[in-house]
Amino acid sequence: MKLKVCGMRDSQNIRELLKLQPDYMGFIFFEKSPRNVGNDLDVQLLLSFPETTQKVGVFVNEPLDSLRAIVRKYKLDYVQLHGDESVEYVGELYADGIKVIKVFSVGNEAFDFSQLKPYKSFVDFFLFDTKGKERGGNGITFDWKVLEAYDQSVPFLLSGGIDLENIEKLDELKGMNLHAIDVNSKFELEPGLKDVERVRELKKAIA
């Protein structure tokens, strides 16, 4: 199982985390997020990333031209769309050759997976996160059994409240098309600053 660590922005913290070789590292380009990168991101550091760690830009209803400019500036490998982006919006990114992770927020009630169908031709992964007050980073899980209704046709990332205490519950998802887990707030010392030792423990746990 692959690992994505999201909400990074501090240069030294990024360097320390890179030593653990997470498969993906996420950077949030959304002003309302407490983990928004703002002007903190070191462009040269991101441009020097090893191929072992893919860079993911996280966006919420970002204008297309602005998103494209950010992708070019940091040479992002993926964009993760956390807003209400339309199929047409995602299709334009696909046409540009930009790899897309489309996020859907899931509660504990039945989820209508049919809404994913029009996106399937344009995305590399879906990401299922917990429906909450914020668009991500809420630190709470949803009932993963809801995912049994998903047809598994597109691989997905799982997010929302994953930590060292509940990692064993991932066994419930055996047989599903789970590509990676995505962690954020449960592994932080403060918003945007990760506890590298806890991430190291997590990596060992899922190896």
TrEMBL record:
<dbReference type="InterPro" id="IPR013785">
    <property type="entry name" value="Aldolase_TIM"/>
</dbReference>
<keyword id="KW-0413">Isomerase</keyword>
<feature type="domain" description="N-(5'phosphoribosyl) anthranilate isomerase (PRAI)">
    <location>
        <begin position="4"/>
        <end position="202"/>
    </location>
</feature>
<dbReference type="GO" id="GO:0004640">
    <property type="term" value="F:phosphoribosylanthranilate isomerase activity"/>
</dbReference>
<dbReference type="Pfam" id="PF00697">
    <property type="entry name" value="PRAI"/>
</dbReference>
<keyword id="KW-0028">Amino-acid biosynthesis</keyword>
<keyword id="KW-0822">Tryptophan biosynthesis</keyword>
<dbReference type="InterPro" id="IPR011060">
    <property type="entry name" value="RibuloseP-bd_barrel"/>
</dbReference>
<dbReference type="GO" id="GO:0000162">
    <property type="term" value="P:L-tryptophan biosynthetic process"/>
</dbReference>
<protein>
    <recommendedName>
        <fullName>N-(5'-phosphoribosyl)anthranilate isomerase</fullName>
        <ecNumber>5.3.1.24</ecNumber>
    </recommendedName>
</protein>
<dbReference type="InterPro" id="IPR001240">
    <property type="entry name" value="PRAI_dom"/>
</dbReference>
<keyword id="KW-0057">Aromatic amino acid biosynthesis</keyword>
<dbReference type="InterPro" id="IPR044643">
    <property type="entry name" value="TrpF_fam"/>
</dbReference>
<comment type="pathway">
    <text>Amino-acid biosynthesis; L-tryptophan biosynthesis; L-tryptophan from chorismate: step 3/5.</text>
</comment>
<comment type="similarity">
    <text>Belongs to the TrpF family.</text>
</comment>
